[in-house]
Amino acid sequence: MNGQKDQQEAAAAASAMPEQLVELTKNKEPREEAEEPEEEVRSINYRIKLAASLCAVILVIVIVVVVLIMGNLIPGLRCTTGFDMPPANQILDNGYVRVGVDYNEGGAISYVAPSNDPQNNLINVFDKGRHVQMSFFAGPQIYNPDGKCDKLFNGYEWSWNPIGAGDVDGGVSQILNFERSVGQMSILTRPLQWACHGVPCECTFDKHIQVIDGNPAVKVTATLRNERTDEYDENEAKGQELPAVYTNGGFHRLFTYRGASPFAPGEPVEEIHATFENQFWVPGFFRGTENWAAMINDDGWGLGVISPEHDGFLGGFSDPGKRGCGGPRDGQAGYIAVVESYALPRDIVFTYEFYLVVGTVDQIRSYAQRVMTGDESAMGNPPPDAESSPEIVPVPEIVAVPLPLPLNSNP
């Protein structure tokens, strides 16, 4: 009886509930069921967006790492510059090697490339102190005529130092004459003092350039004619660059032979670490007892310098943090100079010869042996005498274009 009474009272109470409360009670569970999927969808969307963002970040990191790695393997991804090829009438080509001079570079050798790859210029022309060029030193120790050479090169006082291409401002040496015939050309210039504002030298530079038939080699006969009128110690000997040679940054491995048995069978060549430290070339001076040195790339190929008369060399590499890459107008560069000490009196006529050879270390060394043992097929011809009749090419007016001063450069 009591159970029946309780059921009747509960039913009556339910009947007495407000209509809104009954509806709320009826709909409570269904509403919760509807809201749970919406929350789950929002959570899934959030996780998808978060994952996409993380994937994007990872992808960027992967791309950066790949570029850095490939930049070390492929120099062009890390640093490269183009260059202005000299006009065709200022280039010699024997089918093995091409060599060119440029009026806009003071007539210095600004271009050496294999004939089958003419865009692959090995020569660095970052500023007028680079190239392949003549460079001489003499007194006075501080050369500053009319205040035009007042610590212009990285704040250093500088001696008398005419160079072939131009000066530290980007001024261009004057072309006096240019002649060419088959396989050879001659260029006469009045050089500028390197560390001065447009100061011409009381001297001339004369270069006779020829490509050697059937060989990837260039022979250069270089002559300084002094015409000095200033006062200095004419008997003071200084180290001369005979010549100075700058290669692009990809050619950073310095090779030579420094032993006591030149060209003997089984005698190995030597790689010397090349760099630039505390404003000095490293390794600096060394004796290459086979009269050659070379700057080589990581593929074992590059440019060799042979001096029949001298075995003293300077070597180094500027901006070593960028070794292994770079083009003709990048700051990093390999450096080789044939070096010997000479006094340069005021009226001296001073002549020397050198060879540039494109190839592997073994090919460069083999060519040096041919030159040093008198192989006429490797030595080329003597310069033409004054009675020859080469083609005379008109010399245009040259306008100097200022170029930035490098941080790590020597003339």
How are the secondary structure elements laid out?
Blueprint (H helix, E strand, L loop, with lengths): L1 H15 L2 H55 L1 H4 L12 E3 L3 E5 L7 E6 L17 E4 L26 E2 L10 E8 L2 E7 L1 E2 L9 E9 L5 E10 L10 E12 L4 E4 L13 E3 L2 E3 L2 E3 L1 E4 L4 E5 L4 E6 L5 E7 L14 E11 L5 E12 H12 L3 H4 L11 E2 L19
Antiparallel strand pairs: 1-2, 2-3, 4-11, 5-8, 6-7, 6-22, 7-9, 9-10, 10-21, 11-20, 12-13, 12-17, 14-15, 16-19, 17-18, 18-21, 19-20
Descriptive tags:
about 400 residues; alpha+beta; Beta-galactosidase, Chain A, domain 5; 5 helices; disordered C terminus
Separation of the first and last Cα atoms:
122 Å
CATH class of the largest domain: Mainly Beta
What is the annotated CATH architecture of the largest domain?
A: Distorted Sandwich
- CATH topology value of the largest domain: Beta-galactosidase, Chain A, domain 5
Structure write-up:
This protein is α+β, with helices and mostly antiparallel strands and 411 residues long. It has two domains: 2-73; 88-392, Beta-galactosidase, Chain A, domain 5 (Distorted Sandwich), CATH 2.70.98. The protein is 22% helix and 31% strand. The protein is built from five helices and 22 strands. The longest helix has 55 residues, at 19-73.
